Amino acid sequence: MMDEKRKILELLEKGLITTDEALELLAALEGAHETFGKGEPGGVEPQIPVEEEGDGSLFRLDVNVTASDLTFALGDGEKVQVAIDGKGAERFEVDEGPGYLRLYERRETAWPWLFSPSFSGSPRVAITLPRGLRFRGQVRTVSGDIQGELPLGKDLLLRTVSGDVDLTGSLAALEVHSVSGDLRWRVKRLFSGDMSLAFHTVSGDVRLFLPPGAYGIRGQGSAVSGGVELELPGVETAKHGVTYRLKRSGEPLVDLKFRTVSGDVAIREGVV
Q1: Per-residue model confidence (pLDDT) at position 190
Q2: CB neighbour list of residue 228: distance below 8 Å, 6 or more residues apart
C-alpha cells in the first residue's frame, strides 16, 4: 500500500492531479484495505446484498477471501458446486441455503495472517454455477486472482487490492474496484435493457471487450497518467484534460465509467 500512496503523492507533487483528487484516491486506497481488515474475531462477517422487491428469484452470491485464487465456471447441473484444494482449506466456511451461497475465511485478523509465512500456501477455490442461474452478489479478495465465466446476472460488486481479474459474463450492472490488480472483462452478450459497467483502479490496467452491435454507448472516464485506447465504431469521443466522454446513439444503452491514476485503459468492440 505504501507504494501506491507514494505514487499518488508523486502525481500530486508533479501537478498531474489536484489536491482534492489526491485525497479522494488516498481515501479509496485506505477503504480498499480496511474492507479486508475488518471482521469479528474468528472470521470475516459476510455481507449479502439487500434483496429488493421482485428479486426473490435471484441467487445471491457472496465470496470473501484473502489470497486464494478464485475460478468461476458454468456447469450443466442444477446445483452450485464449490471445490477448495490446497493447504489451508480448513479455514474456509461455505454457507449454503435456498437461493444463496456465502464463502469466506475464518481468521482472527486479516492483515497479520496475510503477511505470515503460510501466506504462500493459500488454497485454490473453484465455484461452478448452473448455466441457467440468475444471480446478484459481491466478490472480494486481497491478492488472489479471479478468473473464469459467470452466468447472467443482475448486479455484481467486485473488489480486489492486488489480484488480477479476468472474467467473462453478462450483467445488468457491474462495478469493479482495484488498487493495483489488472481488470479484464468480456461482455458475452447484451440485455434487452440498459447495462451499467464501472471500473475503478489506481495503477491496474483495465481491458473491456464488448460484443459488436448497434447499441448505444454513453461513457465517461479519467486517466491521469495512463493511456486510453478506444476501438468503438461510431462512438463520438471528447477529451478535456484527463477526462474522456463517449457517446453513440442506439438501444439498448451501455453506460460506461472508468477511472484510473496510472493504469492503461483499453475498450474494444467485436473481440469477445
Answers
A1: 85
A2: 221, 244, 264, 265, 266
pLDDT 10s digits, 185-209: 999 888 778 999 999 998 899 999 9
Question: Position of cell 485464487?
Answer: 69
Per domain, the residue ranges of the chain are: 2-37, 40-150
User: Would the pLDDT of 263 be above 50?
Assistant: yes
- Using the CB atoms, write b or e for 75-107: b if 16+ within 10 Å: eeeeebeeebeeebeebbeeeeeeebbbbbbeb
Burial class (CB in 10 A: 0-12, 13-18, 19+), 219: buried
Cell numbers for 47, please give them: 455481507
- Fill in the DSSP letter of residue 51: P
**Is 90 exceeded by the pLDDT of residue 27?**
no
Confidence of residue 26 (pLDDT cuts 50, 70, 90): low
Residue 97: phi, psi to the nearest 5?
-160, 180
The burial of 9, by beta-carbon neighbours within 10 Å (0-12 exposed, 13-18 middle, 19 or more buried), is given as middle
- pLDDT one-digit tens code per residue, 104-128: 987 644 444 444 444 446 789 999 9
4 pLDDT above the threshold of 90: no
- Which residue, chain included where needed, has cell 481488515? 37
Whole-angstrom Cα distance, residue 160 to residue 176?
Answer: 8
Q: Is-contact 264 205, C-beta < 8 A?
A: yes
User: Which residue(s) pair with 219 in the sheet?
Assistant: 246, 256
Question: Is the Cβ–Cβ distance between 100 and 59 less than 8 Å?
Answer: yes
